[in-house]
## 1
Amino acid sequence: MNLAELRREYSSHGLIETEMRSNPIEEFRLWLGQAIAAELYDPTAATLATCTRDGKPSARIVLIKGIDDRGFTFFTNYGSRKGRELTVNPHAAIVCFWAELERQVRIEGTVEKVTPDESDEYHRSRPRGSQLGAWTSFQSEVISGREALEARLRDLEAKFGGGEIPRPPHWGGYRLKPEAIEFWQGRPNRLHDRIRYRREEGVWIVERLAP
């Protein structure tokens, strides 16, 4: 297989600054809605990149579970690798990629925990199996094998029975508060459209970047 020969041509309608919303979060809502309408697989999936205190990066896929003017919300174990890295370095980036639409969005900013009430509300909305899973897994820790997870799950099922499963204290939400959001649209000849919104003193500045 010659990877250098693997390529595709892009052909979608381009991005025109005057046709885009002044608020990038509203523009993102539009793009996400179009991805959902196109019935793409996991349209809310995004790559989340974090760094250690000394700048060593790591990345993984998360699901965006909330969007408002404050930012983009996802949920995880606070003791996971991403949680530990966000504790010492609360700066992160998210990338959404919708290949079928020839689009991606890059979001950069600072991260904070959502309120306990927000985490509780989302936890209550999750399927019971997912609620138990949040208690079962000490995310990112080394374990002896799959059997250890399944044994712990059985113990928790017995403990909670058919009753309510409270949110684990080590699990909850984070919100990425955007400082820059870039919309990318594939175009022919690799001359892709890149429109960046950059927050400056509370105002969004719109700029076109070279591809």
## 2
Amino acid sequence: MATIHPTAIVSTKAELGENVSVGPYAIIEDDVIIADDCTIQARAYIANGARLAKNVSVGIGAVLSNPPQDLKYRDEKTTLEVGENTVIREYATLNRGTDYNWKTVVGSNCFLMSYIHVAHDCVIGNNVIISNAVQMAGHVEIDDYVGIGGMTAVHQFVRIGRHCFIGGGLRVNKDVPPYILAQGEPIQYGGINSVGLSRKGFDDEDIAQIKRAYRVLYKSDLIRREALDKIRSDFEMTKSIESIVNFVESSQRGIIRG
């Protein structure tokens, strides 16, 4: 049974699971599904299309699944999906999707800090940490185990590969390949995320191979196509190396500079 503060406004059409807690002055609209053990704190607004999995925590004043800030949006029925055990802190805003992708997605075990904005049709993977005041435009894709420093802006349609760490106060206007540190103004390759990879169980040989691959990609005189061909010919195509090659090869915006 849900525990709902007397001052909260919760639609009778909304579906609330067991042990859901709804704080003072929170608002939950009709087309909302909230699974077991979620916490909706004071003054949070959960709009139509929100789908929260188990044990999601929504902070004070956060606004979830409000309409996208897209002039092409015509009130089509879209959703915002949030995975299990994700924490969304104070005054974050997460828009639902448009008919481009029909949904905005945040994975499981994520930590989204205060004042962040996740725009329409973004897809965020699992175990992602997004620091205070990060601002994302529409259609951004962030893979698993990414960390983004505070007050960073991410351009629309940018892709960020798994296990990256992006520094604070930056402008991400190109794709960021997996396993690296991104830093500087303009944003650029700053080495690989060795500490993060080691903490996630990557062995020394795998980390060394990733470092060598990026040396070919960023530090040689080869153009990108030649660098990818050299990596294919000279490296064992482990899962890590294959993911680097596939990411760079499929980039539509181009990758950050070396």
## 3
Amino acid sequence: MYELVNANAGLAAIEADLRRIVDSGKALLSADLVLLENGEHREIMPGILSFRAWTTKAQLPDELWADYCLRTYQEGSAELDVLRQFETQIQNLPKEDSSGIFLQINFGKQADPLLLVPQNKMDVQRAEAAVAAGYPTVEPILMELLEWIQDYNWPVAYVLRPFLATVGMPLEHHLRKILRGDDDIWKYYVMEIVENSRELTIALRDQLERIVISPTSGETEEELDQCAREVLEKYGLAPSSTENL
């Protein structure tokens, strides 16, 4: 869940909005700076749609929910000075309700699985909490967790990928979407998850065969055709043809 707060409102007003969210029983997770023009997202910097302004720390095992919410408010409000880096841009933008630089405040309710989603690549604490919660608790956030293994150099990826490799068939829909996409490095990292499950391999056979028989140039460059072939051969599923792919 998130709420957009216009940065033109000033730091005091934004801090009041943070307090209102926390007083309603929600914990602040992070905040992103976004640029809206007539209600549509635009690049806030060249090639970048949003800028992570700040992230709060995960709830501690023995921390009461009310104490956690208050702490996230304290951590978030202490980071509002980041807006001063964009002071010139903010002053020069239109002040209509649908245009300008906004702070997208991300928050979660108690026991919300979103609390387990890492907020940055270093957020190992939330990644470990997601693993500890296990499946099916993390079922609603499987795609969000998969997004954090797009680069295996990220510390959170080291925590999440071995766990995700044990989930099996509940990942089919999400993995199919990834394999149909154009992020070839992400495809490479999810191949290990597919390889770990005969059921997933059978379910995704059409996508694996497509990569083997008719790979894109990017898939060939990342050697995904060879990876897909090895996964299929592991379970005795030799590629057949591209018919109905």
## 4
Amino acid sequence: MTRGQNPRIWIAGAALLALLVAALGYLVLIGPQRDETDTVRSNVAAAQAQGDVLQQRLMFLAKQNKDLPKYQAALAKARLALPASSAMPEFLHTLQTISNTTGTTLTGLTVGAPAAMTQSAAPAAPAASTSSSAAANATAPGAASTGVFTVAISAQLTGPRPNLAEFLRQLQAVQPRAVLVTQLTEGAATVNAVTPGKAANSSSTSLSLSMQAFISPASAPVSAQPSATPSSGG
């Protein structure tokens, strides 16, 4: 090897050594730092995405909060349809009010005892008395209770047929409580007395109506005794 070649060898060696030092520095210092930076960026992106989801959730909850009065009104309406207690005096008063406003005469009412509904059978047809209604609606052995109770109600009305039809419409579409009409029996009205100075209305019709009202107690079961005793309207 000549002397002229020595500087070139030293230069090449120095360049190779610098390359090795740079590669080692990248592997030891720069590479891990870049990996850590990529991880941080990924975490930031994930946090931003989660923040967007939470922001949308907050906007949704804020909208729901604005609609809270509407939801509360809907709940109150549902509770009127399916009350936590029998509230029979109020309901019987409602029936009398509908009778008065529709021009019909409510001649009799019979209320049965609350009975538990079961999942295995539909509500039984109402009976004519408290004791027979309780027997007809007794929970079948082994049947699972739904937590809902039924009250059998029988009503007798007289009046012109259109007026009786209006009574039924208001019973099912106007007054708030949910009732299930199970039987309707129509016949000719029997006039027991005639108002002085007025002739008997020959077009009057009698209607026997059987229905069931429902109760959904919040916790404790309802009493086995009816909340309202059988009553009659004039």
